[in-house]
Amino acid sequence: MMTDTAVAIRPFEAADAPQVRLLLEQAFGGTDEADLIDRLMRDGELVLTLVAERDDEIAGCVAFPRLTIADESGGTTPAVGLAPLAVAAEARKRGIGGALVRAGLAQLRDMGETLVFVLGDPAYYRRFGFDAANPAFRSPYNGPHFMQARLCGGGPVSGTIRYPAAFAALG
Question: Mean pLDDT, to the nearest integer, of 28-35?
């Protein structure tokens, strides 16, 4: 898939790891998000990871970790998170982040995923179909920046959202 900025959106490959790590460290000013991705990959907790490539360089990355929603009876339903999303400083404001999010959500929909949750700027994520998360979902991230997108019909409307253990290490 190409964007109008001559960037190819493609699945993450193992050879991308060093460039993605550097991108995340630079974008977030530290190692927390890079360490998060490393651990999610190592633990097999990523549903989908995409990169934006321009001139053989990684210009952006988005990851979608597996979440679960526990209901009152103890049953669980799979869901997906969107975290992190990063674009190289010199490539920002060119639609790369949006292209990554749109491509990821389309692939998740095709995979049969029903719900995606994100902690982010509502003004940014609303353009992709995210709305304030239903307050009936309980999460450590509840608040005005906790959002959900329903990709297709079905799926729970309440429950406790469980994140992979790698998120516990975030500060």
Answer: 96
